[in-house]
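Subgroup meeting minutes
Present: P.N., E.W., G.H.
Scribe: E.W.

1. P.N. recapped why we're keeping a running log of single-chain structure predictions: easier to compare across weeks, and new members can see raw inputs and outputs side by side.
2. G.H. added today's entry (78 aa).
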Amino acid sequence: MDIKILGTGCVKCNHLEAATRAAVTELGLAIEIEKVTDPGEIASWGVMSTPALVIDDEVVSAGKVLSTPDIVQLLAAR
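Output recorded in log:
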């Protein structure tokens, strides 16, 4: 499983990263989470509003901070 957090490092982006890390830990997954901060690369994903969460090359959320339980559900469904 491949997980990316798309965001420039704003507070919301950091909260999404923390929630994602907590979800990965809760599920006992050994996954590296990549942070993408380059605006050009973020735009290449079609994301116009950050933060965004990408799981296995699919943008599953953009423009909001998901909670840890929401992310757990997304990851468990994969």
